[in-house]
Amino acid sequence: MSVVYGILLYGVAAVLLCGVGYRVVRYWRTSAPLKIPTTPAPVTRGGVVLRMFREVVFFESLFKGSKWTWLFGWIFHFALLLVLLRHLRYFIDPVWGWVEWMQPAGVYAGYGMVFGLAGLWARRLMVDRIRYISAPSDHLMLVLLLAIAGTGLLMKYVLHTDIVALKLFFLGLLSFDWQPLPTDPILLLHLFLIIVLALIFPFSKLLHAPGLFFSPSRNQADNPRERRYAPGAPTR
Asked: What number is the average pLDDT over the span 155-166?
């Protein structure tokens, strides 16, 4: 089982990095010849940077569009960030001080993930116009994320696993010195779900994470009079 999961994790890491890298390069090379920033828009590059910061950190446009969607979406993404930072302890030795300090917050963030995902899924099921445009893949993504969060909480509070052996396994993968992987069923399921998520990430709507930075409606300054753009020329 250690060999199987080791090979799977190496393979999925390659797919994830190459897939996301390929899509980012395509985004970068795609020209945006027209000025289409969503107004009111900043007129300077510094203003664009500030706008992108508010968009990435606070989901500003989503807040203006739908308060409930913003609430559930922001809670989920912030909780996911805390959970990912908490999991750094499995890949570094010794563990950095700030990673140790935020471990309790990372534990409670698991509940935040479930709460946010449940709200987003309820929106797709209960709001008529959202349900109409929702594809089966949209529901499957939410189910997959909920399953990952749920199995993680189960390992924390119900079906405990050997986290020391688990850390040795991941450190061994990083140093190409493979160590045994605990064979607890809930851990294997948790890792398998993460592998599935990482495999489909570069080819799914989840790629909005890096795609946001290449959105012309967000990353352009509103200066069409001050600067002339030739047709077909990139504006970034």
From this structure: 91
Element (H, E) at 219: helix 216-219
Under 8 Å between Cβ of 206 and 145? no
Alpha carbons 231 and 206: distance in angstroms, whole number: 31
Nearest to 122, CA basis, from 62, 61, 58, 71: 71
Question: What would be the CATH architecture of the domain defined by 2-219?
Answer: Up-down Bundle (1.20)
∠ at Cα 183 (177, 188), nearest 5°? 95
Per-residue DSSP letter, 93 = S
Task: Give the DSSP letter of residue 16.
Answer: H
CB contact at 8 A, 124 and 134:
yes
Mean pLDDT throughout 197-210?
91
pLDDT band at 165 (very low <50, low <70, confident <90, very high): very high
Q: How far apart are alpha carbons 216 and 218 in whole angstroms?
A: 5
